[in-house]
Design brief:
109 residues, mainly alpha, 0% strand, Probable addiction module antidote protein, Lambda_DNA-bd_dom_sf, HI1420
């Protein structure tokens, strides 16, 4: 099967957009991090963090700067990954971000 000229995969386009727009990357990751609370949605949050890391120079570069082995980072940011708090904080710091806490929004009766 031949490749179509000028066609870019969704993933490649997503990485390019996140690389070009830091505010978009922060908003994307912030929305995705909310899914980490739900075991059924956790994979999406981890994959979003992985995508932002790819946009930040690639998993190998992020792992090296964060002091984590590349293999460990790939495993941690996989759909079934379970990164430690230390890994999560190191990856976010490498990308110039940090973890924050906000009150949970609750409907008032």
């Amino acid at each position: 099967m031949s490749q179509l000229k000028g066609v870019v995969s969704h993933h490649e386009r997503e990485i390019a957009e996140l690389r070009a727009d830091r505010e978009l990357a922060v908003a994307y990751l912030k929305a995705a991090m909310e899914s980490l609370d739900d075991p059924d949605e956790r994979a999406a949050g981890l994959l979003a963090l992985r995508t932002v890391a790819e946009a930040h120079g690639g998993l190998g570069a992020v792992a090296a700067e964060a002091g984590i082995s590349r293999e460990s980072l790939y495993r941690s940011l996989s759909p079934k990954g379970n990164p430690t708090l230390k890994t999560l904080l190191a990856v976010l710091k490498t990308m110039g971000m940090r973890l924050s806490v906000e009150p949970e929004h609750q409907a008032h009766a």
